[in-house]
Design a protein that fits this description.
Distance between the termini of chain A: 40 Å
Oligomer: heterodimer
Helix content of chain A: over 70%
Strand content of chain B: 15-25%
Low-confidence stretches of chain A: none
Distance between the termini of chain B: 58 Å
Radius of gyration of chain B: 31 Å
Strand order of the largest sheet of chain B: 5-4-16-15-14-6-7
Shape of chain B: globular
Number of strands of chain B: 39
Helix content of chain B: 25-40%
Strand content of chain A: under 5%
Number of strands of chain A: 0
Largest sheet of chain A: none
Order of helices and strands of chain A: HHHHHHHHHHHHHHHHHH
Radius of gyration of chain A: 24 Å
Structural class of chain B: alpha/beta
């Protein structure tokens, strides 16, 4: 059933549906090169920053400052200000790390994999999704450093030549993390920046103030829009997309090794790599939705980020959600099928032990709510509902990491050492603080950089299309 | 940022200060000769040959602060070096130490003073230049005095501070600077006190005390280096004088600081073992909260002043009327002799002994009954907790003999325990009967009747069927093994129990075989009844008869029975003097307070439980100039005269005098030998004497039990801090108590049924009322506690214990009366709120509603179900099961044995040594001595209650306790758990920086300096034995604790993971010795600290490559198993599965556990 059959009465809605496919249009009708450019450029080059921006930024900045305070206190006192203890020696820091890294994955998937698959609809959301990736990696990258007992020695994890000839221990998954995350961060930043170069050219040309001209001029690397530039640009994009694509799969795979390589029941699982990657994309798309929905409303970008995008992202979430569900199912199945007492006890304890509630939250948020509702196109195109779902999935995915980290650790092999875990105010301060940091960075991004790639949107407009018929006419 | 202090304690900031004094060095080339170098001269030969720079360099490499503090080391240096040494370091300490300063030549002292605020002005050339010559006659400032002193050159030095102080200018300066103390300066006696005060309060070099110490040589025990060799410890025999019998010790001394106490391995009584108390006394020595000054009404005074006053009073009274001494139990024969001399001279002077944990028991008066458990097949404990700690007399020997029989299934003994509060003794017993305390005497009487002891009528009592059955089985077993059994009476029971036990032993023909009556009591001056004496003292106080009350090493304000209202009576004494190690509750309100010397600081003597006399040798000069009871009594005996109050016959002389008649042959040779070996030969009690208790004459009436519904309150000394004397010892406070795993608190311990009946939950606060006296306490459950009964431990709720002990727990003395010191009836009321106890066992223990599957019999806790069930962590069998299937520990599911050869990669070839450990689960009684020993050996930090509450305690070794069976009648399994040193260590593979690695000898090691603290290793450790410094737990600041540390083990800073190292420092030391002698390490040469402390010899360490070694044999034993072997971690520590020896008649249903099925 096509969308047009659902709401044929609404002329406005009808306008936004592509009669050829019956789907929502990727870009609302009536957009021209000029309108797109003006729309996006005005957000950045306007002298009148919306008051709302200041309001949200000040809140986010305050929360980010709290992060600064919390980290300062952490460095002064030690990780003991957190709830980490025996036997739960990893806590919020690792949970948050995995969660943030996971969130980043959607951006890379959208910008790299969907580019290679020529999914044109990605263009509208690609830029800010990638920004999200970078800021998520910033937040994620903070945690491995601050969670160690002696953060000032964190560089010992790097294989740098030193007079004592000491190298890191290459069998440790934590070391693989260092390489995975640093590679990921580098590629993401480069890819993001290269993608912005044509837009920087536009901004430079349209900027009124000298500072802006100078600033964007510097960033645009002398972009003149010549064919040669475009050719190189396209090649670079493709190459970087090719580099970034395996990273979408590898980074979270490596991070899942942090757990899978350990001998702990609940961690020592071969299904972790695919299950982590799917979970990462699941939560990443949820975060893109969490950002996109308020953003298109605030900056009136409904014409560029349409229901089609929301709908498509809902579909991706549905698919990855089911992979995640399969992962959960397999964990339970293997607990029984392996006939291992350790696995069986772990699963029983995870579900019915003193922290069984967290498994309940996980199942509710990751499976029960999204996987039953996202089937419905009506709900998938309901903006408010999708915003709600995005929050639910983000929560659920955070709890997935909580369940993996904490409930595997607090009751492991020796019953004498069983313990519990109760987060402290500093745990919360740092977690919420990274949310603030992320929001603040994102707000700076939407204020100073083109959040939607003008060049790519322009190419999708009808005006950019040379119909084969016309070409035939012209040529033959 | 860089708070990384691991392994870098010494040598800080040396270079800068060395330069500054270099210039001064050139000006004063001849200081070394011609001055009072009395102490320095001894050691200066070798050091003197070095150029100063070299010496400094030599010192630098070492833990320098220590060296600087050590008078001898400093003495060996040339003056400039001393200064440099002092400057860079904890100067205040060194400078305050009269000896260190005394060893300096005057110029040095001055220079030493320069570095401080105090004389900042003097250092400033401008200030000095501005002084007009005529200004000298005007009142000087102290700074000017310093300048004055500094300007004196050549040979015209002031001879002493006193000489200088006679100048009017100086006195004027003092008045100006310290108007409040000006009077003291003029007073010749208290001038020294002033000096000390000044030294302490300004942290400058005290001008005090250049007294030459008397020569009282002590002799090294095993190794006798000619002079101190840095880094090479010396060992001295000493003894820990304890009220239930001294513990003979061998104390490790590093650069003249005692750093580890352990049992004397050659001593016939304890054979090298120790106990938690003894291990804890080391920290007590270095306790920074010890009192440091003689005070009178809060003002600092001198010992001589006190001595003068007390002596004047005593002499004035002619016969000692009005002079009372209140002391803790006298353990020293010399002290008893001294008191007898005082008493002879002043017959009306009164001595009262009072020890709250001993008063009212048979231990205060009765001759010691010795038990020989090595000959006992059946052991019956009548509320005697002889396996859990030194509070039971003869603990070390009893445990040793008990455990020796548990090593092999062929020699198993059988232990029955009848007890009123769950202890490790009861939980180790094959058969345990929990009775309320008041029921025990009646039960003993029933037992006596059944065994034909005419002990009068046993009180009529409605025994339950289970109790009757237990009695019947016990009687039958005892009769069958007469002459080979033993009945041991509890200490905290009605006297009838001890009498009955002796009668029963007599009736069974045990006396002379397993039971011996010693000729004398352990304590040399036994009181008939400490409580009666104490009551008489209170009466005399109230009657106003007491002019002087001298309290020696006791804290009656805190420990006195509540019904005697001692605090009120206390105020009626005209003058109270208190000799105590701390300014405790009594010290706070006494007129005089004299700091007491620790036993490691003073000469004394004491008897072990078997009667052997040990000399208490000091290992260090008193840190704070403490005095002992010997000094007090000796001072009263000395003839008055110059210096009589402070010198005269010292404790050293007194002790020698006591034993002169006993030591045979040439006294000096004999004395030297005694000090060397630690005891006097031939002083053990005569055990041939027949028992005094004749069955026929015995007429003991056991008291009738209280009503079954009444609520009984049982008072027991704390298993960790005893009667409160070790409140301020962090190691003991943090130590999880046996059975309850409670740390940092005491609690009202009840049974699960009583908890339900009273409508309480664990950690609730209740108000306990006994005879209208109330106290608030938290409630916790102990498995196996009798119903309608509450156990409270004494020793907590201290107000003035110090920074560690003050405020922990509640004061059970407040409801303890003289009439019923060990159990009373009372009532409780629930109050609002939770207490917040810190319990180190898992948080959800005993939540029986949530069991996994349906395994076990449904009574176990989830933890025990798991540990004893499929996880196979605890494996044991009964003797019958063992005989049927000797390989029970390694058969069946969950009991996998790993094969070292099943591996993809070739195994590491161990050529020489492969270290391993074996722990005998059958012997371990869970007494905790190993844990405290580990604290001392490995510089383990104390983290405090709040950190323990959230699971961050740092003990490298813990004793996992699993309870099996019904909550009301459990069996417990104690499993000491430390790093297992896995061959396939999961921790090593995951460390990103390689901070934890395998050595070629199989140890799993931590490189603290390399650790960045990812804690991944801890997560991946299946045994959860790694401990992380989440915060800065180690104390790097407190001066006295610096002396405590073992210099061979680094002190870990925050953010670093740590764990058991199999005492690698001891391994290395032994390897160096062996290398020097070009030989292999002998089996048994290396003992880990836990092994050394263990009174049950449950821990064996050695080279498993050497097939003849003890540990290799134990590991090859069929009962040996590895915990979590199915994880293929291949641990190097193996456990020997327990074999129990239950009485078939009393065994209800066969205990269901997997090995039996296999």
């Amino acid at each position: 059933m096509a969308t047009s059959d659902l709401k044929p009465k609404d002329p406005d809605l009808y306008r936004r549906i592509d009669p050829a496919t019956g789907e929502y249009r990727v870009i609302a009708p009536g957009q021209t090169f000029k309108s797109v450019t003006e729309k996006i450029v005005r957000i950045v080059l306007t002298p009148d920053t919306p008051l709302g921006w200041f309001a949200i930024f000040s809140v986010a900045g305050a929360v980010a400052t709290m992060l600064l305070v919390a980290v300062t206190w952490l460095f002064l006192k030690g990780t003991g200000i957190w709830a980490v203890t025996q036997p739960v020696a990893w806590g919020f820091a690792i949970i948050n790390f995995v969660w943030w890294i996971g969130i980043g994955h959607a951006g890379t998937l959208i910008s790299a994999i969907l580019l290679l698959f020529k999914q044109g609809w990605r263009n509208s959301i690609n830029r800010f999704a990638e920004a999200m990736t970078i800021f998520a990696v910033v937040c994620a990258g903070l945690f491995p450093l601050i969670h160690i007992g002696r953060p000032w020695l964190g560089y010992w994890l790097l294989p740098y030549p030193n007079s004592m000839n000491v190298w890191p221990q290459f069998r440790s998954p934590l070391l693989w993390d260092v390489f995975a995350v640093s590679t990921y961060a580098t590629i993401s930043v480069v890819f993001w920046y290269i993608g912005m170069v044509p837009d920087f050219g536009t901004m430079r040309d349209r900027a009124q103030s000298q500072i802006a001209q100078y600033f964007y001029g510097l960033l645009s690397l002398g972009w003149r829009g010549s064919v040669r530039h475009w050719m190189r640009y396209e090649t670079a994009s493709l190459l970087l997309a090719g580099l970034a694509t395996p990273l979408v799969l590898s980074v979270h795979t490596v991070i899942s090794f942090d757990f899978a390589v350990a001998i702990l029941p609940g961690w020592h699982t071969t299904i972790f790599p695919p299950y982590f990657v799917a979970g990462a994309i699941y939560s990443g798309f949820a975060m893109v939705l969490t950002l996109a929905i308020p953003l298109r409303k605030f900056y009136h970008l409904e014409g560029l980020v349409t229901e089609r995008h929301i709908d498509n992202m809902g579909k991706v979430m549905l698919a990855t959600g089911f992979i995640v569900a399969y992962g959960y199912g397999m964990e339970v199945f293997m607990a029984w099928y392996s006939a291992s007492h350790w696995e069986a006890f772990m699963m029983w304890n995870r579900m019915f032990g003193p922290m069984g509630w967290s498994y309940g939250v996980l199942v509710t948020c990751n499976l029960a709510i999204p996987l039953t509702t996202l089937w419905s196109r009506k709900l998938r195109t309901n903006i408010a509902f999708m915003f709600f779902i995005s929050i639910v999935v983000n929560t659920g995915m955070w709890f997935e990491r909580f369940v993996i980290v904490v409930t595997s650790l607090y009751r492991d092999f020796l019953p004498s050492s069983w313990g519990t875990y109760r987060a402290t105010k500093w745990d919360y301060a740092i977690y919420v603080g990274t949310l603030g940091l992320f929001t603040a960075l994102f707000l700076l991004f939407v204020r100073f950089l083109p959040m939607i790639p003008m060049s790519e949107i322009r190419m999708m407009l009808p005006g950019a299309k040379i119909t084969p018929k016309a070409a035939a006419k012209a040529g033959d | 940022m860089s708070k990384d202090r691991n392994g870098q304690i010494g040598g800080n900031g040396m270079n800068g200060s060395a330069k500054t004094t270099g210039a001064e060095l050139a000006e004063k080339p001849s200081f070394v000769s011609g001055h009072d170098f009395s102490r320095a001269a001894g050691g200066s030969n070798s050091a003197g040959a070095l150029a100063p720079e070299e010496k400094l360099t030599a010192l630098k490499g070492h833990d320098f602060s220590r060296a600087a503090n050590d008078p001898k080391t400093v003495g060996a240096l040339a003056p400039e070096e001393k200064l440099t040494a002092l400057k860079g370091h904890d100067f205040s300490r060194a400078a305050n130490d009269p000896k260190t300063v005394g060893a300096l030549a005057p110029e040095e002292k001055l220079t030493a003073l320069k570095g401080h605020d105090f004389s900042r002005a003097a250092n400033d050339p401008k200030t000095v230049g501005a002084l007009a010559p005529e200004g000298r006659s005007a009142p000087m400032t102290l700074a000017q005095v310093r300048e004055e002193l500094k300007s004196v050159k050549g040979k015209r030095y002031w001879r002493s501070v006193d000489e200088l102080a006679d100048t009017a200018e100086f006195q004027a300066a003092v008045v100006k600077e310290f108007p409040g103390s000006a009077q003291e300066w003029v007073d010749p006696v208290s001038r020294r006190g002033f000096m000390k005060l000044m030294g302490a309060s300004l942290a400058l070099a005290g001008l005090a005390g250049c007294t030459k110490q008397p020569d009282e040589p002590i002799y090294p025990y095993v190794k006798a280096p000619e002079d101190l060799i840095l880094g090479k410890p010396m060992y001295f025999a000493s003894a820990h004088p304890f009220v239930t019998g001294a513990v003979p010790l061998l104390v490790k001394s590093d650069q003249f600081r005692p750093i580890k106490v352990d049992g004397n391995p050659d001593h016939p009584y304890n054979q090298g073992s120790s106990d938690p108390f003894t291990q804890g006394t080391l920290l007590d020595l270095y306790d920074p909260d010890r009192s440091q000054h003689v005070t009178y009404r809060g003002e600092n005074r001198e010992w001589a002043e006190f001595a003068q006053e007390l002596r004047a009073k005593l002499v004035g009274s002619k016969d000692g009327t009005g002079i009372y001494f209140l002391t803790s139990t006298i353990t020293s024969p010399t002290l008893a002799r001294q008191w007898k001399a005082v008493s002879a001279a002043y017959p009306k002077a009164t001595l009262v002994q009072y020890d709250p944990a001993i008063a009212g028991t048979w231990a205060e008066s009765a001759p010691a009954t010795q038990y020989d458990l090595s000959a006992a097949d059946v052991i019956v404990s009548l509320d005697a907790d002889f396996l859990s700690g030194a509070s039971y007399p003869g603990f070390h020997k009893l445990v040793h003999d008990y455990a020796a029989r548990r090593k092999s299934p062929d020699t198993l003994n059988r232990l029955y325990a009848i007890e009123s509060t769950p202890t490790t003794t009861g939980l180790k017993a094959e058969h345990r009967l929990g009775l309320r305390a008041s029921e025990v005497p009646a039960f003993a009487a029933e037992l006596g009747n059944a065994l034909g002891v005419a002990s009068g009528e046993a009180p009529a009592y409605a025994w339950t069927d289970a109790q009757k059955k237990f009695l019947a089985g016990l009687v039958k077993d005892l009769k069958a093994s007469s002459g080979k059994c033993v009945v041991i009476p509890g200490l905290y029971q009605d006297p009838s129990v001890a009498a009955l036990a002796l009668a029963i032993n007599n009736a069974l023909g045990n006396v002379g075989k397993t039971v011996f009556a010693a000729s004398e009591p352990v304590n040399p001056y036994p009181a008939k009844s400490q409580i009666m004496d104490f009551k008489a003292l209170v009466a005399d106080l109230n009657a106003g008869k007491v002019d002087w009350l001298v309290i020696l090493n006791a804290n009656p304000i805190y420990t006195a029975p509540a019904d005697l209202e001692f605090a009120n009576a206390f105020d009626k004494a005209k003058i109270v003097a208190h000799l105590g190690s701390h300014l405790d509750e009594t010290g706070q309100i006494a007129h005089w307070h004299i700091p007491a010397a620790h036993y490691l600081e003073s000469w004394s003597d004491a008897r072990a439980y078997d009667g052997t006399v040990s000399i208490v040798q000091p290992l260090i000069d008193p840190l704070y100039g403490g005095k002992t009871a010997h000094d007090v009594f000796q001072m009263l005996l000395n003839e008055p005269g110059p210096g009589a109050y402070s010198s005269g016959l010292s404790a050293y002389d007194a002790v020698r005098e006591t034993w002169k008649p006993v030591i045979k042959g040439d006294f000096e040779t004999g004395w030297r030998k005694v000090l060397h070996q630690g005891w006097i030969d031939g002083t053990a009690f005569d055990k041939t004497a027949k028992s005094g208790a004749d069955t026929g004459k015995l007429s003991v009436q056991a008291p009738a039990p209280t009503s079954k519904d009444s609520l009984e309150i049982i008072f027991r000394p704390d298993p960790n801090i005893y009667d409160g004397r070790w409140s301020n010892v962090g190691w003991l406070q943090e130590l999880p108590k046996p059975v309850t795993n409670l740390s940092w608190d005491n609690a009202a311990i009840v049974s699960g049924a009583t908890l339900t009946k009273l409508g309480l939950e664990e950690d609730d606060i209740i108000e306990i009322t006994v005879n209208d006296r109330k106290v608030n306490a938290p409630v916790i459950v102990a498995p196996g506690h009798p119903d309608n009964s509450i156990t409270v431990h004494l020793g907590y709720g201290r107000e003035f214990a110090g920074r560690v002990g003050s405020g922990a727990g509640f004061n059970a003395y407040l409801i303890r009366t003289a009439a019923s010191p060990f159990y009373a009836t009372g009532s409780i009321k629930k109050l609002d709120g939770k207490w917040g106890t810190a319990i180190t066992k898992s948080h959800y223990q005993d939540q029986r509603g949530k069991r996994f599957g349906e395994q076990g019999n449904g009574n176990n806790s989830l933890e025990a179900d798991e540990a004893i069930g499929e996880r196979g962590i605890i494996r044991y069998a009964t003797l019958d099961e063992y005989k049927a299937n000797p390989d029970f520990a390694n058969e069946g599911e969950g009991h996998e044995k790993t094969d070292r050869d099943v591996t993809l990669f070739p195994n590491w070839p161990y050529k020489d040594n492969a270290w391993g450990m074996s722990i005998d689960m059958n012997s371990c009684t869970g007494c905790n001595a190993c844990i405290v020993g580990c604290y001392a050996e490995n510089n383990i930090a104390v983290v405090g209650k709040q950190q323990v509450r959230i699971g961050r305690n740092m003990q490298w070794l813990r004793i996992d306790t699993y309870f099996e069976g019904d909550l009301s009648a459990p069996r417990a399994h104690f499993q000491p758990m430390a790093c297992q040193h896995c061959e396939n260590a999961p921790c090593e593979q995951v460390c990103p920086v390689g901070a934890t690695v395998h050595t070629p000898e199989g140890l799993n090691m931590m490189a603290y300096n390399r650790c960045v603290g990812t804690r991944y290793c801890s997560n991946n450790c299946p045994y959860k034995v790694r401990r992380f410094n989440f915060l800065l737990y180690s104390d790097f600041e407190t001066e006295s604790l610096k002396l405590l540390r073992n210099p061979d083990v680094s002190v870990r800073s925050r953010g670093v993971m740590e764990k058991c190292s199999y005492c690698v420092q001891r391994i290395s030391a032994a390897k160096i010795e062996a290398d020097k002698e070009n030989r292999a390490i002998v089996d048994g040469e290396i003992q880990t600290a836990c092994q050394q402390a263990c009174p049950a010899s449950a821990i064996t360490f050695g080279n498993i490559n050497d097939k003849g070694s003890k540990v290799a044999k134990l590991q090859a034993d069929e009962r040996s198993y590895q915990v979590l072997a199915d994880q293929n971690t291949r641990p190097r520590t193996k456990y020997v599965a327990a074999v129990l020896n239950p009485n078939p008649e009393l065994e209800e249903a066969p205990v269901e556990h997997l090995p039996a099925k296999g």
